[in-house]
C-alpha cells in the first residue's frame, strides 16, 4: 500500500503539501476530499483523520494529520534536498521560527479575505460591508510589513539564497487574497520580487496547477453547499459577520 495524500486544493495547507510532493517527485495517490460537499465529515475519512480536516496522510497503516507535520515527514522519509528543511541548525531554526509565527499572523489574516468576499456570501446569501474587508486588509498589512522586515529582509528567500518550507507555506497562504481580487503584492516591490523567485523555484506550471481553483474561486458562486457543512460553520460565520 503506497502513500496516500488526502487533499482539497481549495485549502492552502493542502496546496503546500501537494506542491512539495510534486516538486520533489514523491509518488503518491491523490485522494480528493471535497470540503464543500462535507466529505471530510464522512465516517470513511474519519478513519484516516479523526480531526476531520485536510490535509491528511496515510502511509501503509500509518496516518498523520497537520500540514507542517506532513511536510516534515515527507522531507525526512524521502530525503528531499537540504534547502527545504536545512540540516544546519541555525538555518533550520529560521524555518521553524517562521512556521511558528505564520499561524498567528499571515494565516490569521490572509484567508479572511476569501471568507468575506466569497464564502460568507456563498454560505449565507449576504454580503458583508466594505469596512469588514478593510479591517482585515489593515491587519494583513501589519503582518506583511513584519514579514518583509523580520523574515525576508534583503535576502532572496526567508532562509537565504534558496527556497525553504517557510517560503512555500508563506506564498501559498498569500495567494488567497489574490484569488478574490485583493492584490497584496501591488506597491510592495520586495514582496512581489520574492513571489516571483518562489514561483520560479517551484516551477510556474506546477504553481499555477496547484492554484487553479483559488484563482477561479468566483466560479463557485453557484455551488451547492452540503447542509451539514452549513450547520457546522454557522457559529463561525455569525461571529465573522458581527
Reconstruct the topology from this structure.
Blueprint: E1 3-7, H1 12-23, E2 29-32, H2 43-46, E3 56-59, E4 62-65, H3 67-77, H4 89-102, H5 106-124, H6 130-152, H7 165-179, H8 189-202, H9 204-210, H10 212-215, H11 227-241
Parallel strand pairs: 1-2
Antiparallel strand pairs: 1-3, 3-4
Task: Explain the overall architecture.
With 242 residues, the protein is an alpha+beta fold. The protein has a 4-stranded mixed sheet, with helices on one face. The protein contains 11 helices and 4 strands, in the order E-H-E-H-E-E-H-H-H-H-H-H-H-H-H. It is 57% helix and 7% strand. Helix 1 packs across helix 7 (165-179).
Summarize the structure.
By secondary structure, the protein is an alpha+beta fold. The protein has helices spanning 12-23, 43-46, 67-77, 89-102, 106-124, 130-152, 165-179, 189-202, 204-210, 212-215, 227-241, and strands spanning 3-7, 29-32, 56-59, 62-65. The longest helix is centred in the middle third of the chain and has 23 residues, at 130-152.
Q: Any descriptors?
A:
about 240 residues; alpha+beta; four-stranded mixed beta sheet; 11 helices; 4 strands
What value does the average pLDDT take?
92
Order the strands across the largest sheet as they lie in space: 2-1-3-4
| Biggest sheet descriptor | 4 strands, mixed
**Shape assignment:** globular
Unreliable residue runs? none
Q: What pattern of helices and strands is seen along the backbone?
A: EHEHEEHHHHHHHHH
The class by helix and strand makeup works out as: alpha+beta
Which radius of gyration do the C-alpha atoms yield?
A: 18 Å
Distance between the termini: 48 Å
| Strands, total number | 4
